[in-house]
Design goal:
The protein has helices spanning 2-5, 8-33, 36-52, 54-58, 62-87, 92-96, 101-104, 113-124, 128-139, 144-151, 155-175. It is mainly α. Helix content is 77%, strand content 0%.
């Protein structure tokens, strides 16, 4: 239905998004869902929504576009986990802490493994919004201007939130207590 109404330019963008992101999205979803069929369902719904909202997506810069598409996927994963919960109880923690940095990053320098392990613990203590902000800033390497546009906030607010999260992580390291209070 939607493919008949899509311009050639938008069809090319959908193909580009699919070719560039399908494998990363599949791996991400499979780690979270631990099921091939659920992963395929999540990707199918994600690309259906990408196709449906391609006009909005085409207006985004590349870095923002990828983060936006992954947010659609993340929401689909949450929906599948909620559906599973209805049929058999699951830990809400799996939904609340969807973005687990332990799965996302692999570190090769074994000389700093203790600090890296601490950092993983401290990152997982952040709120979902803080994790998402750090993901956009450091993993996606987005500029504050792009983050602000994506989150519908000012660039200064994006910078300040990022600074607060970094300050929080630094205090966790300094004090060595993940429950440290940040002013």
């Amino acid at each position: 239905m939607y493919r008949d109404m899509i311009s050639i330019k938008d069809k090319n963008l959908i193909n580009e998004v699919y070719l560039n992101m399908n494998k990363k999205m599949y791996k991400f979803a499979l780690i979270k869902l631990k099921s091939d069929s659920d992963t395929e369902d999540a990707l199918e719904e994600t690309f259906f929504k990408i196709t449906k909202y391609i006009n909005k997506i085409s207006e985004l810069d590349c870095g923002i576009r990828e983060a936006y598409c992954f947010k659609i996927l993340e929401n689909e994963i949450i929906n599948i986990l909620r559906d599973r919960e209805k049929s058999s109880p699951i830990e809400m923690e799996k939904i609340n802490c969807l973005t687990s940095y332990e799965d996302e990053y692999s570190f090769e320098d074994n000389s700093e493994t203790e600090d890296i392990e601490k950092l993983k613990i401290y990152i997982n203590e952040l709120s979902d919004d803080e994790k998402f902000l750090m993901d956009l800033r450091f993993k996606q390497e987005m500029k504050f201007k792009d983050i602000a546009k994506l989150l519908d906030i000012t660039e200064d607010v994006a910078k300040k939130r990022s600074q607060r999260v970094i300050k929080k992580l630094k205090s966790y390291f300094k004090i060595g207590d993940k429950g440290a209070k940040i002013e």
